[in-house]
Amino acid sequence: MTTAEIGRLAGYSTQQVRDLERLGILPAAERARNGYRQYEHRHLAALRAYRALAVAIGPVPARRLMPVLLTSPLDVAAERIDDLHAALARDRARVREARRGLDAVLADTRVTADFDDRDAMTIGELAQALGVRTSALRHWESEGLVIPERLPATQTRRYRASAIAEARIVAALRGGGYRIPEIAGVLDRLAHRRRRRAGTGDAR
């Protein structure tokens, strides 16, 4: 196949095909005597695999992964795919955590009744539970997203139910690519709904 032919079959322009080959996303093409590239079905399979990966995990991670898949032994390539599945599982777990956090933020009376002071968390404990750095929690505090209590004697941060729940939501949204101003707007709307005891459909 020529560059134009393989591009047409895979849904890319000729320049995109050349760029993807240069980046190692598809194997280097053989050259005919006239210097033109000649592609085979393995090249088409690589282009289609890249397109599917880009949809599944994003173009940048797919661009980094494809050269590894093309040049690695089968067991190494399979391990990298397993890593992707594990990352998706972690993302799903974070979404569930955000949903639970949302329930806790909105069910204010239930949280107050059920929360045991012994369940309050330090900044280190909360950071470990969320899989973030303590500096991230401090930044969220400075932005007004998650406000912990301060112990009077030492000014040590102490996260109770509402702060823990909001931190879950912030962590999940940050993991999903939301920016700080967007998250602040979401939390403001949630607080407004909680005060009015409005439905949570939009927030969910």
From TrEMBL:
Listed transmembrane segments: none
InterPro entries: DNA-bd_dom_put_sf (IPR009061), MerR-type_HTH_dom (IPR000551), MerR_fam (IPR047057)
Domain HTH merR-type, first and last residues per copy: 1-48, 120-189
UniProt cross-references to Gene3D superfamilies, sorted A to Z: 1.10.1660.10
Keyword Magnesium: no
Alphabetized Pfam families for the sequence: MerR_1
UniProt xrefs under PROSITE patterns: HTH_MERR_2
Tagged with keyword Transcription regulation: yes
Keywords: DNA-binding, Repressor, Transcription, Transcription regulation
Name of the protein in question: MerR family transcriptional regulator
